[in-house]
Design brief:
The complex is a heterodimer. Chain A is 0% helix and 54% strand. In chain A, strands 2, 4, 5, 6, 9, 10 and 11 form a seven-stranded mixed beta sheet that branches. In chain A, strands 1-3-8-7 form a four-stranded antiparallel beta sheet, with no helix packed on it. The N and C termini of chain A lie far apart (37 Å). Chain A contains no helices and eleven strands. Chain A is an all-beta fold. In chain B, β4 and β5 form a beta hairpin. The chains are: A mainly beta, B mainly beta. Chains A and B meet through β5, β9 and β10 of A and β5 and β9 of B.
Chain lengths: 115, 114
């Protein structure tokens, strides 16, 4: 079975540009998470979707960040305009039934560098 | 609210030696606890989890962890380190079946010396 698929794996862009990160969760999973990982702050939850509906976006840093989940098999995280402090590894993770307590399946991440 | 503290951001052990990675948690209710492993340039994957059943939990790759309520700890151990164990390890806590919030520690990078 395919795992969580993220694209692009690496993105280098200039400050002010729009960045779109993409995620395809595991088929059948109904929960999707976007995390950001940095050396300084570790892993931070940005947003959580359940059944395609955003449930908790309190971790989204500011209005420059937005996330969508138009259907069960696709999600995007957009940063517009990007800033150097957004440089990080962004992970998408999905989870299946409620009984799979805490078992998140992570993608390989999208490493973003904003110059 | 819940939190985890991982003692030591970097641990080095010799191949064949005991691995001990420390995790202490804080939780207002009985927690569910997890250890995840991250290999270089990869996402995190679940090593093992404690969900209020047996306090000694066995995971993949020979790792195990013991939940000690009196010490609010969930330390990860492996009797004999292998070179392939070199990775970063994250302890995480959630408040139970109905919670989606998984709070991660800052991680401990394990190096294995030949």
């Amino acid at each position: 079975d395919a795992g969580v698929i993220q694209s692009p794996r690496h993105e280098v862009t200039e400050m002010g540009q729009e960045v779109t990160l993409r995620c395809k969760p595991i088929s059948g999973h109904n929960s999707l998470f976007w995390y950001r990982q940095t050396m300084m702050r570790g892993l931070e939850l940005l947003i959580y979707f359940n059944n395609n509906v955003p449930i908790d976006d309190s971790g989204m840093p500011e209005d420059r960040f937005s996330a969508k989940m138009p259907n069960a098999s696709f999600s995007t995280l957009k940063i517009q305009p990007s800033e150097p402090r957004d440089s990080a590894v962004y992970f998408c993770a999905s989870r299946g039934l409620a009984g799979d307590i805490g078992e998140l399946f992570f993608g390989e991440g999208s490493r973003l560098t904003v110059l | 609210a819940q939190s985890v503290t991982q003692l030591g951001s970097h641990v080095s052990v010799s191949e064949g030696a005991l691995v001990l990675l420390r995790c202490n948690y804080s939780s207002s209710v009985p927690p569910y606890l997890f250890w995840y492993v991250q290999y270089p340039n990869q996402g995190l994957q679940l090593l093992l989890k404690y969900t209020s059943a047996a306090t000694l939990v066995k995971g993949i790759n020979g790792f195990e962890a013991e939940f000690k309520k009196s010490e609010t700890s969930f330390h990860l151990t492996k009797p004999s380190a292998h070179m392939s164990d070199a990775a970063e390890y994250f302890c995480a806590v959630t408040l139970g079946a109905g919670s989606y919030q998984l709070t991660f520690g800052k991680g401990t990078k394990l190096s294995v010396i030949p």
